Amino acid sequence: MKLELFKRNIIMLRKTYLMVAFLLTATFAFAQTGTLKGVITDAMSGEPIPFANIVAEKNGNQIGGTTTDFDGNYTIKPLDPGSYTVKATFVGYGTVEVTGVIVSANKITPQDIKLQEGIAIGEVKIIAYKKPLLDKDNLSGETKTAEEIVALPTRSVASVAATTAGIYQRDEGDAVNVRGSRGNATTYYIDGIKVRGNMGVPTSGIEQITVVTGGLPAKYGDATGGIISVTTKGPSNKLFGGIEYETSSLFDDYNYHLLGFALSGPILKKRNTDGTKGSSLIGYFLSGELRSVDDNDPSAIGMWKVKDDVLADLKKNPFVIAPNASAGFLSTSEFLRESDFELVDAKLNANEKRMNISGKIDFKPSKNTFLSIGGNFFAEKKRDFSRWRSMFSWQDNRESSQVTYRLFGKLTQKFGSDESNAEESASSIKNAFFTIQGDYTNNKYTYVDANHQFDYFKYGYVGKFTTTKAPIYSRGVAVDSLSGTIYTGQILNGWADTSYTFDEWADGEIKYDWRNSNPGLVNYTSAYYDLFSQYGMNSYMAPIMGEFGVDAANDGVIRTAADLQGQGLRNGDLPTSVYSLFGNHAYLYNGSAKQENTQTSFKVSGSADVQSHEFSFGFEYQQRKDYYWGLGPMGLWGLMRQQANKHILERDLSNPQAQFDANLIYQDTVKYDRLFIADEQSDFDRNLRGVLGLDPNGTDFIDIDSYDPATYSLDLFSADELLNNGSSLAYYYGYDIYGNKLTTMPTLKSFFEEDSERLIAPFTPIYTAGYIQDKFAIEDLIFNIGLRVDRYDANQKVLKDQHLLYSAYTAGADLDLMNGTDIPVWIEDDYVVYVDDVENPSTIVGYRDNSSDTWYNADGLEISDPTLLADEAGGKIAPYLKDAQSAKKGIVNVDEAFEDYTPEIVFMPRIAFSFPISDEAQFFAHYDVLTQSPPGRNRLEPVDYLFMADRVGATLDNPDLKPVKTIDYELGFAKTLSLKSALRISAFYKEMRDMISKINVIGAYPATYYTFGNIDFGTVKGLAINYDLRRTNNVQMTANYTLQFADGTGSEADGAVNLVETGQPNLRTAIPLDFDQRHALSASVDYHYGEGKDYNGPVWFGLKVFENAGANVMFSAGSGTPYSKQSNITQEAADGINDRSTLDGSLNGSRLPWQFRMNMKVNKEFEIKWNDKKSSHLNVYVQVQNLLDARNIISVYRATGNPDDDGYLLSPAASDPQSGAITTKNDPDSFQYLYSLAVNNPSHYSLPRMWRAGISLQF
To answer: Which of 112, 128, 144 is the last residue of a domain?
Structure first.
């Protein structure tokens, strides 16, 4: 009795330990694991077999194992997604192996096994896994395995996901919209890591892709559209690898090349008791891809460009003389003919090179402890296509690069022992485990001119320009302030340019290295100087030159910068456009930028089966850090000219210098020195004088364009000079204004201080979440109920009142200064008071309720237009400011104007259930509440507020944006139609709330502005039908159809820009969203012949010619998405033409044509036998995207509904001289042809047919 009592106490203590340990550690992470579950029975009697041993192996490594309970049930978890071999053994029964068992993330994989009694010892029965037709855990979505992914004719994760019902993708490789949600509502994961930047996972390294379109379990968060989760492969117990090469060079000019590899194996194996090597204790997996392509996004209609020989001539002769020579010169590019252009298939200078590497090392120090560390690396360098430069200046496309790396570590600890069957079966807590994971992501980007990179002063540098100045005199009077002497005569009035030389050559050699940097710009200026001289053009300074005894009329000498007339280029200038249709040759990229984003996450998750309940709990902490710095470097030249010498432009009139000869006879001339005004001297000027060795307090005139670019550096400027009174040359946060990454976190208050360095902290929002989930059954009803709590903290300051940058009085304050003005009794104390004059208030004109943004007039009557209050204050809104004088000076009191962001906490219930009618049919349903952190436009930008008074009508980000929300419902039915096919039908409904849209903050002080608010909403109603046919007579197929109605008030954050910027209110009526595809059909058909006895194809000359050969076809068709038709003709092809369109009909009331797309991959596999035990597999394939070469139209011009014509050339406006008619162009024929090329935009069409051939070897 005592022994029995002792055993019970021991069992109770162990159970208590398990529960305490579980509760202490079971907090949330995004769990990328699945569960294997089933029953072991006697094959003859059907009776359950208790205490049978079950083992799950992956790539030869034992990953998990257990024994059955008294009822023959077993559960193995957690298991990483992938393909497993499940082995079942029991004394007196034969061993059974089930191969290829697919375990998916966050799903239960059922696998029952029947054991045969009396089978000879050592005999093993091998059974191939058959995936269940009814998936009880993920009925709203789909999972693709590694084998299925490789077979598909695409390498895009998004395109693989687009085969799922309810997902819209505009074209191959594009981003997706899940069930009517915005594109940024979809969240991607890699091995449980939320993706920031490029996914960067080689195809050969992908184990599974899981798409969840609805019914998100509580463990998923920060997504309102869908989840696309990628799981990478793990190590193997045996060495294996593969190599692959794919190319398009045999078929087209896109020159796609891909080289991939994969390698896996053990590092350290366990030593068995008999001395042999056992399973792997430490193993690795490594995969990678190198890819190069000249045009990764070609158009079905190709690209037009000027011919090479024509371009060479344009560079040599950029100008022609105008018909009226006195009118100057015109661009030669505006006088071309049809024969000067050619059509090419691939974009020019749009090449990209990238490298992906993914790796993982797994450790198994004990049977119940697993440690995995790994990550992936992505690097890319490319030239970004520019439609503006595509015709004449493709050589100058921007260079961009990206480097992304992710690192993670994951520890999984299971409780209990596989051998402790009796205790486990008797215990109320089973299969308890916890997982701890930490990860770090770093993304770095650069955007530069390929030649100049971060050498800012070489951007736009043309050469050395030397300005010669001479004094100008006129008859007048000067008074000596010291002696009182009055002088009459020629008085110095100022200084004038008399010569403006451009130094290009010296003794036949290049004098500066700038010609190698920007030769195209030099051509313009050099040619302009030559033509100016050749045609004897007249300088603006010619009349003044007569005062110096020089007859400069028509002498062809350039004497001042104004003579260049924007045709000859100074440093920092760009050539004029070609009819505003294309950038001219040498239209260089004007930008130098770098960006860094990081993400650090810590996650803990746990799970346990408590009696009939499967509990899971969890917690996650995540912090992002975003840094950016960008500069428009060509603007530095103009800024230097502006900031230099501005304090010495005046004459020192207090010190006239009368000129006397040697005999002290007055020479009828008075000179002045330049007046030094210390308060007007810029920091740049003073610092530059120090660099040049000049007296910082001197009056030497600095000729900016005469110095080498190496003379200058950014730190010569102060921060305020680079901000340039709101016309900033630099945009930055997390870096200082000079591009140095910050190591401290500057405060907002320090930014607004006088003489501030204007430091701006990086954007560092914090996201935390926790959840609890329970999966259980009540009779035949299976429930999955959870509660998730998300907390989002923008971790920054926000305006207390979006209408006020300066603190103002409210109605409850002492307002005696208002001469006893009576305040209506229904006006609350916290209403903001508005007066008739900001600086000298005398009368109250109105009030505003900040909580509801409701305005009232002086009588307390509600008004809808706050400009009525502005009209009573002289035309500008006038809040009753507490410190009007500080506001007038632009002094911002941060403590009074701003406050900390209030974190948003959202509770999100998740309820899902399924009701099996029989083994062949079931109903299912779910209800979800989902939220997502603001996807953008929510970083505090202090510069916006620094210059707010001068930026009337500017668009400001809103740092106070809240998370967006979605409520999702679905009801469905699934049924097997035969042993190999099933049908699934579901109806879904979504309410999307608090989506982000542009709004107008009317009546804001010191200026009205635009920002973004959580005001958009939408609904999605749909029906999805899925058909699944397992392999039957060589054919396997999945197909789906979606009927969907996606309506809302806005499709994107900037969707309402045309409304709010014309003074109209935001749309409050739902219209079809831009991605509302009413009908969508998708199918994937795989036809393959088997091998050996399973081959049923033709045999020619004794050869099974199609053995292990076949084809996979992806087909998609969809109705057109909506757009808003316009009734008037506008110049859509031209840049900078401010024509305003007029709506024709209803918003988004017209539709694009239907779209059809078919991709195909044909392959054949060969086995190469090296010996009796070792062989390799060679796979040869051809892949075709857009097999039928369909020219799908993905965008049209709103006036005509055509992709290649906006209607302008044939419109009355084209013949109206007042609106820039064709006849007023320099060459009407050339303009019309160039316009016809520009208007047929290649981006309006889908991808062309693209062929690729590949070969892979698996060993």
So the answer is: 128
